[in-house]
Each structure stands twice: as C-alpha cells, then as structure tokens.
Amino acid sequence: MTEASKQGVVLMVASGGTERMVRGLLGDRLGCATFDFNPDEDVFVVPNRDASVYSTVHELLKPFERLHRRAVVMLNAAWPGSPGAAAIKDELSRRLADSWDEYAVIVIDPVLETWLWCGLPDITVPLPVPEDYRKTLAVSKHWREDEDTPNDPKGALEHLCRRNKAHIFSSDLGEAAQYISVEHCKDLAFVLLCDRLQAWFPENS
Residue 48: which pLDDT band, with cuts at 50, 70 and 90? Predict the structure, then answer.
C-alpha cells in the first residue's frame, strides 16, 4: 500500500469511554478539516486499559503501520504503577518514533473525566448530576475553593452520581463530548490533540 492510499490516522485508546469520547469529538469542530475516518476501523480499544497501552503500544500498533499514515495514542496518567504523565509521554514517544513519522501521545492527567470538567460549559446539561454539584463537592472535599476543577475528576463525578442515584455509561461520554467547547477546554492533553489534528488536517487544505 502506498502512502497516498493509507488512512489518515489510527487512534489507540485505553477504554470504551475514551472511544466514545473520541467519536463525539472528532470532526471539524476541533478546528481541523474533515478527514477520512471510520470509527469502526480506525479506533482500537486496548484490553486491560492504560497499563497495557503503556507496556505494549509498539506491538499493538504494528498491524496498523501499513494501513495508516499517522498514529494517536490516548491514555490516562493515573493508574496503578503509573510512572506519571511526563514519563509516560516521553517513553511512548520514544517507542513510536521508531515506526511512525507522524504521531501524537495524548496523556490525560489524571483521567479522561478531566475533559468533562474542563470542557463542558455546564456539566449538568449532558450528564445526570445535581444542580448544586459545586456545593456538594465542596462538602465532600472533591473540589476545594482555590481549584478550577475537582482534584479527583473521576471520583467527583462518581460521588455526584451516587448522590443523584444515577449512572454514567460509555455512551453518555460520547454524548457529553458533543457539548465540550474547544475554546473553553484548556486541558493540555486536549489542546495537544486539537493542535496535532489541525496541523495534520488544516481547515483550508
């Protein structure tokens, strides 16, 4: 297969929730041009999640090298045994550079739910959380007054769901992703994803 005939990008993600988030996010709303992308073929969910992405990403991406021009790897920074966001990014970048000319390592620090808190103008619109969530999380110590977002993004969301007797499924994350404001979300991993896609697929190309 020639370079010109390869698919634009393959995304390797560490969970079904991340896959749903990606499906909800991708498109011209990220500031890039529309590009050929089939979520059923171009997104690969890694079994056993973040630790497996970190330990076996090079081998897992091997089958995609002849089919895709670029690779994006997405995982959380927080998991048992994690060496930390910076070390994860450095190590995976080193491994991918051996086989890919163009790639991006997106390490969400600490977890995927960070993008919901950073990017949703009103988290109560797409997700089943109570209107007084800020006060509730202050009482539970998930969100201190001097913080812009909860110190434990996933734990905060789970606490609110328990209080509201609700559940959030992977499909809910995909729905919520459609409400994320690119201008509003300043999380470094999210900005990196947008920047890389904009560079690869510029709007005026």
Answer: confident
161's tokens: 């769901």
Whether the Cβ atoms of residue 177 and residue 25 lie closer than 8 Å to each other? yes
| Cα-Cα-Cα-Cα dihedral sign, residues 202, 116, 177, 126 | negative
Query: Can you tell me the distance from the alpha carbon of 24 to that of 93, in angstroms, rounded to the nearest whole number?
Result: 26
pLDDT in tens, 89-132: 999 999 999 999 999 999 999 999 999 999 999 999 999 999 99
Is pLDDT larger for residue 24 or for residue 205? 24
Q: Are 64 and 10 in contact (CB under 8 A)?
A: yes
What is the Cβ-side half-sphere exposure of residue 167, based on CA atoms within 13 angstroms?
3
Q: Which of 175, 177, 188, 170 is nearest to 30 (CA)?
A: 177
b/e per residue 179-192 (b: at least 16 CB within 10 A): bbeeeebebebbeb
Asked if 157 and 91 touch (Cβ cutoff 8 Å), the reply is no
What's the pTM? 0.93
Task: Identify the band that residue 27 occupies on the pLDDT scale cut at 50, 70 and 90.
Answer: low
Which helix (H) or strand (E) element contains residue 114?
helix 113-119
- Nearest Cα neighbor of 153 from 120, 194, 109 is 109
DSSP state string for 40-52: HHHEEEPTTHHHH
| Structure tokens, 59 | 């081998």
